[in-house]
């Protein structure tokens, strides 16, 4: 295992056991079996361990969208499928870590701001991917990307709050829910 | 005019004329005809002038939603109408200030983070308002509030980028666009 992964694992273990506030960088480095210096080569600070600094998720989702046969141009479904393929296995396997991370972020306004900025970047990356995949109209691109990320956000939140459905089920649930609620408006 | 409004007007004038970076709190206070001390009684710092610290917009939208007759329960439309009634006149009258503000925020990651947090708070306020107005299911509330804010966000962005439509026209445009894109998925 690389030192970065060792540090992430150690940090998450300590956040769960002792709380985010009570965990020091010294303890994280010690548990990972590396020096504090190694920690600072990988992360700027303690909060950095919680974030995907390289926008890895955004890049994977973008690659997934570009790889699909988009001749049917059902882009919202493709985006939701990207999240199903790319995040669902990890979300099921690491539920405890994800919930802990979520609660840490909700309780620290500065971390919440950073999380919102990550979602903003994710949306921008998906907009670009849709454009590359052949969705030329800017308004279509923007709206589609925002709807994809919205469905992801809603599914993620409910996944954290409730264990009644898997992450995949929540993604499909909110895909249908958006469609249902918008449709309802028309029949009134 | 109250000193708070005087300071906001002065700050916006200076941001437009000299740029955000080049404007000092001293200059803002001077142009408003008050002391620096008065500035700091109203605002924490220069960036604070750009933000609606009291979530005034969120509270107004919430009040609007609660006041409507919701027996038809077309909540997304009600939310979009709230933005039309509450923000459209101001948006048309102060287009230059709004565009300047938008560009300042886009160019400063810390201000962008704060803006995203404001949108997050706005969404939470609308969720609560929908619940009070009779939308009992949590998933319906969350999805409806997110869709309302999404339509507002998309319309706002395009209003800033393009002068081809009024803010009201952009709101209605993206209301229809969301519906159209989601519908298209079904016919494939």
From TrEMBL, chains A, B:
InterPro entries recorded: Homeodomain-like_sf, HTH-type_Tx_Regulator, HTH_TetR
Domain (HTH tetR-type): residue spans on this chain = 1-61
Coiled coil ranges (UniProt) are none
DNA-binding region, residue range(s): 24-43
Signal peptide, first to last residue: none
> In the record, what terms sit under GO molecular function?
DNA binding
Pfam families, per database record? TetR_N (PF00440)
* Protein keywords: DNA-binding
State what protein this is by name. TetR family transcriptional regulator
What is the source species? Enterococcus hermanniensis
Q: What is the lineage of its organism?
A: Bacteria, Bacillati, Bacillota, Bacilli, Lactobacillales
């Amino acid at each position: 295992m690389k030192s970065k992964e060792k540090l992430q694992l150690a940090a998450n273990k300590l956040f769960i056991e002792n709380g985010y506030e009570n965990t020091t960088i010294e303890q994280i480095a010690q548990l990972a079996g590396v020096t504090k210096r190694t920690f600072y080569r990988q992360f700027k600070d303690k909060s950095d361990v919680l974030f995907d600094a390289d926008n890895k998720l955004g890049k994977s989702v973008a690659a997934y969208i570009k790889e699909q046969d988009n001749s049917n141009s059902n882009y919202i479904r493709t985006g939701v499928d990207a999240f199903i393929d790319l995040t669902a296995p990890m979300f099921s396997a690491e539920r405890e870590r994800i919930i802990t991370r979520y609660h840490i972020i909700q309780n620290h306004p500065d971390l919440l701001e950073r999380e919102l900025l990550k979602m903003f970047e994710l949306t921008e990356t998906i907009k670009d991917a849709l454009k590359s995949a052949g969705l030329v109209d800017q308004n279509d691109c923007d709206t589609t990307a925002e709807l994809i990320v919205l469905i992801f956000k809603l599914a993620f939140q409910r996944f954290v709050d409730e264990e009644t459905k898997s992450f995949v089920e929540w993604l499909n649930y909110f895909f249908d829910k958006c469609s249902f609620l918008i449709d309802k408006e028309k029949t009134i």
